[in-house]
Design goal:
Blueprint: E1 2-9, H1 23-41, E2 46-53, E3 56-64, H2 67-75, H3 86-97, E4 105-112, H4 123-132, E5 135-141, H5 147-155, E6 160-162, H6 166-175, E7 198-199, E8 205-206, E9 219-220, E10 223-225, E11 232-233
Parallel strand pairs: 1-2, 1-4, 4-5, 5-6
Antiparallel strand pairs: 2-3, 7-10, 8-9, 10-11
């Protein structure tokens, strides 16, 4: 089981057109392919997506297994603005991954076209926190080799590669789909899992995927029922808030 954050550079450097039609448009397309292939090899893992622009890390898709939501959120990203910040992107991912259970791997995959990073604090502090939390950072560069990217990946037992062309970038992303080797710090544990049955003629209930949107509340007799929370939804269940 893996918990992975994909960090995308959305600075002005991603507007360069050495990849067609631009670096960022090409990256969006390949990121969508990566997410589909990732879940093909890691069906019970979770991904989150962070975009870094204007020196800030913005979580555009929460850590979950909702493939359609991830792809839609990536497609919704438009303008590339400001500068890239390695520290802020890592910090954003660290705040979520540091609380993830130790039986699963914690990983960050960065795709960056910038050769510089505008950081509010020395990167050493962040590297220490990442190493102590056993968070693996891998970086794919779109330009030249950058010393700080190599240092971050080496310090966290990740990988660092620089793409040659679009086909090579696609291959580098595909390599990240394969699960990493287990580390001694990963604790084996039994994990409760549920397989929601598809109900076609059940009792009338409120669809949970419409609860937050009061304007689209929907009563239904069909859908998928969570075996633990007994919540019903017309769409397949990805995450259900369960209170024992």
């Amino acid at each position: 089981m893996r918990h992975v954050f994909l960090i995308l550079d959305q600075s002005v450097n991603m507007e360069d057109n050495d990849l067609k039609p631009s670096r960022f448009m090409c990256l969006k397309k390949l990121s969508e392919q990566f997410i589909l292939e990732f879940y093909d090899q890691n069906p019970i893992s979770q991904i989150g997506v962070i975009a870094v622009k204007n020196g800030k890390g913005q979580k555009i898709s929460e850590l979950s297994s909702n493939i359609n939501k991830h792809i839609a959120n990536i497609k919704a990203q438009k303008a590339c603005e400001g500068q890239f910040s390695l520290y802020n992107g890592l910090e954003r991912a660290y705040k979520t991954l540091s609380s993830m259970p130790s039986y699963a791997s914690r990983e960050i995959i960065i795709v960056a076209g910038s050769l510089t990073s505008v950081d509010p604090h020395p990167i050493n502090d962040m590297l220490t926190q990442l190493a102590e939390s056993n968070i693996r950072v891998s970086v794919i560069g779109l330009s030249a080799s950058v010393q700080i990217f190599n240092r971050v990946s080496s310090a966290t037992n990740g990988t660092y590669n620089v793409m040659l062309d679009e086909q090579h970038l696609q291959e580098l992303l595909r390599l990240q789909c394969a699960p990493p080797a287990a580390t001694p710090t990963m604790e084996p544990s039994l994990v409760k899992m549920g397989f929601p049955p598809h109900v076609t003629d059940g009792p009338l209930s409120l669809c949970q995927c419409h609860v937050e949107d009061k304007t689209k509340s929907e009563l239904t007799t069909h859908g998928f029922t969570c075996p633990r929370a007994l919540a019903n939804t017309v769409k397949f269940l990805w995450n259900v808030k369960y209170v024992p």
